[in-house]
Write a structure and sequence with these properties.
Elements lengths: L7 E7 L3 E8 L4 E9 L7 E6 L4 E6 L5 H14 L9 E8 L10 E2 L2 H9 L8 H14 L5 E5 L9 H4 L5 H6 L9 H14 L8 E7 L3 E7 L2 E5 L21 H8 L5 H10 L2 H6 L4 H9 L3 H25 L4 E5 H6 L1 H8 L11 H5 L6 E2 L8 E4 L4 H17 L2
Parallel strand pairs: 1-6, 6-8, 9-12, 12-14
Antiparallel strand pairs: 1-2, 2-3, 3-4, 4-5, 7-8, 9-10, 10-11, 13-14
């Protein structure tokens, strides 16, 4: 591979009908441009692009038929700011890929074999991997000479021991169908665990951290000395915590019951558990701000949804405390984790015997910076650490491209 010709990395996150992107300069980890193309394939497609240096935002609406057209539109917007895909400063394109199975334990330069393996994993990631593949192939067509790197959501969790990764089902059946616990949100968990250690003034290898990624999708991880040893999501992102529209943990027999007694089809149950459960199933809202507003007004259904959400979260904190044996910090991140102070307060309430507490004044402060919200001299630090998955993808991408040139 030729040497990187610049220090810029374009990060692409391709969904089924959207492309999120950021252009970063890795010489100082600064953002140059950010944007989103949404409703691809519809008449009402929209592209929103922001040039960070000038703080200027442009929008265009109208049909964008496919991902190729979407990326061409992105390239046009970048070119208007002097940041086009043909720039010699562009060193690589980093792609978020949701599912890497057991095959990919680290960021990987994309070639035909890598593409084939990502495609082979579609049965365990039918909603995500096809869209990720489309984004990769489109970017390759636009810049075939440029290194393209896949950064996998599952990679950080491949360090889990078999005792955590295996389900207790027949081994031959599990192996035949690749059934095991993979975990997701890995780039966020990796970034936040490392940033939490830095906040404590220590190396990642010196601390044990419980990371709570709480957004519309939510997951927890137990990180021992920089390595994930357990995480709440499993074969798919459905397992684990109560989420915005996903149920999280349920008795598997619920599915059989719904099929036999409720006469529901597999697809109907899939839709129920992934899109009509969690907070929205419990109270009709999946926005924690709205739920808290309703709680404050005395809404009993919203209160119950909040209580169930916190109960599940607290169970995972306790479980991962037991898994780790020693916990140096708990880190809240993502939309709810970073912004919902009542969630943080409730999640650790009653866990004082484990050394966990939050300072009310510190917890109420809103900031975009990593910060501690636990009382001074607390045995376990409680932190709020804004996640930055795009920076993590760009960092891993640039490190890989640079390391390959030194081989």
């Amino acid at each position: 591979m030729s040497s990187p010709r610049g220090t810029r990395v374009l990060v692409l996150n391709s969904g089924s009908s959207s492309v999120k992107y950021q252009l970063l300069d890795m010489s100082d980890s600064s953002r140059l441009a950010v944007g989103l193309v949404e409703r691809i394939g519809e008449e009402t497609s929209r592209l929103k692009h922001t040039h960070v240096d000038s703080d200027a935002t442009r929008e265009r609406t109208g049909p964008i038929p496919d991902h190729e057209a979407a990326l061409k539109a992105v390239a046009e917007e970048l070119a208007k700011d002097g940041l086009g895909l043909d720039s010699p400063e562009l060193a690589a394109i980093g792609h978020r890929v949701v599912h890497g199975g057991q095959s990919f334990t680290a960021p990987t330069v994309i070639d035909d074999a890598v593409l084939a393996e990502i495609e082979r994993l579609i049965p365990v990631a039918p909603l995500h991997n096809p869209a990720n593949l489309t984004g990769i192939r489109t970017a390759q067509a636009l810049r075939p000479d440029l290194p393209q790197v896949a950064v996998f959501d599952t990679a950080f969790h491949t360090t889990m021991p078999e005792s955590a990764a295996r389900y207790a089902i027949d081994v031959a059946t599990a192996d035949e169908h690749r059934i095991r616990r993979y975990g997701f949100h890995g780039t966020s968990h990796a970034y936040v665990a490392r940033a939490t250690a830095k906040l404590l003034g220590k190396a990642p290898q010196e601390v044990n951290v419980i990371v709570l990624h709480l957004g519309n999708g939510a997951s927890a991880s137990a990180v021992e000395k920089g390595r994930c040893v357990d995480t709440s999501m499993g074969l798919t992102p459905l397992e684990g915590l109560v989420m915005g529209t996903r149920s999280g943990d349920v008795d598997p027999a619920v599915i059989f019951h719904l099929m036999r007694v409720g006469k529901m089809s597999t697809d109907e149950i899939d839709t129920l558990l992934n899109k009509k459960s969690g907070l929205i199933g419990l109270c009709g809202d999946n926005d924690m701000r709205e739920i808290r507003r309703r709680v404050d007004e005395g809404d009993e259904q919203a209160q119950l949804a909040f209580d169930i959400y916190i109960h599940r979260l607290k169970k995972y904190i306790g479980a991962y405390y037991a898994v780790l044996g020693r916990v140096d910090a708990i880190a809240f991140t993502a939309g709810v984790g970073e912004n919902a102070s009542p969630v943080r307060e409730a999640a650790v309430a009653g866990l004082e015997e484990l050394g966990l507490a939050v300072d009310g004044e510190l917890n109420a402060v809103r900031s975009d910076e990593p910060r501690l919200i636990s009382p001074e001299h607390a045995r376990v630090a409680v932190a709020v650490v804004p996640t930055d998955e795009e920076l993590e993808i760009a960092t891993q991408t640039y490190a890989l491209v640079g390391s390959n040139t030194r081989q």
